[in-house]
C-alpha cells in the first residue's frame, strides 16, 4: 500500500496533530532489535478516522511515535531532526544533521524539478530518512524488508512498503550524500511501478546530472568488457524482471551498470524527446518493451544490442 508518498508540497507548516496514541492501532513487528509498525492497519485507520485536511498532522504525529521508538532502539546518541520536508533519524550532531537536511532539501528541489509530473505530488507525510551507525546496524534494521534470502551488498535502500522511507548508514559524507540522492529518486518514483532497470538508471543518472552525486558504479567504460561477458553468460531475463538487482553475485553490480548504460543509450537514441512519455508508460510486467515499441518506436532489444552486441536479449534464449 502506498498511501503515504512523501513528496511534500502539502507539508508546509503542518502542525503535529494532538493524537491520542493509545487510540492508534499500532501493531509492531520486531526484528534485529528494531520495531516496525504494521502500516497496513494504520493507513486505513487514518483514512477512516480523519478528514483529508487533518491527515498530514496525523502522519506527522505517527512518524514521531515511530521514529522515537527506533531512536531509542538504536542506542545512545541517536536523535531526530526536522526540516521543512524531511525528518532525519541519525547519530549525527545537531550541526551535521542540519547540514544533511539542507542537502536533502536541495536534492529534493532539484530532482523534483527535473522529474516534473513524473514525481509523486500527493504526499501526506514528511520524507523520512534513517541513517544508522554502521553497516551492521543498518542490516539489523533493513533485513526486515528483505526476507531470508541472501541479497548483495548495499549502501542504502528506499523501503517501498508501508511508509516509504530511505535508510542508510554513516559513511564518508560525499558517498553518503550520493547514496541518499539516489534513494530519493526512488522515493519520488516508486508509485509508478516502472521496470526496476529504468528506475535504477534514473536513480543513478539524475543525481549525477544535478551534481548531487559523482556516481558509485565505478568507471563503466573501463569495465565494459567484463560487463558484456557477465550478461553474455547469464542472459537478461532476470535483468528485465528486476531479480538480478538483488543477486548475491557479480550480476548485482552488473545490473546497476547496465541500467545506467541502457538509460543513457535511450536518452541518446531516436525519439529521445519522448523519453518522459516512455518513462510514464513503461510497465514492470514486460520490462518496458511495449512502451519502447509504442513511444520510442524501437525494441529494447535494439537498444541493448548497441552495447552487448546482436542477440535475442529479451527472451530466455541468449545470443
Ligand atoms: Zn537504486
Structure write-up:
- The chain has twelve helices and seven strands.
- With 319 residues, it is of the alpha/beta class.
- The protein has two domains: 9-192, Glutaredoxin, CATH 3.40.30; 194-319, no CATH class.
- α6 packs across α9, α7 crosses α9 (251-267) and α10 (275-281) packs antiparallel against α11 (289-296).
- It is globular and about 60 Å long.
- The structure holds zinc ion.
Short description:
The protein has 319 residues and is α/β, with parallel strands linked by helices. It has helices at 39-49, 55-74, 94-115, 135-142, 173-189, 196-209, 224-234, 237-241, 251-267, 275-281, 289-296, 300-308; strands at 28-31, 34-37, 79-82, 86-90, 127-132, 156-159, 165-169.
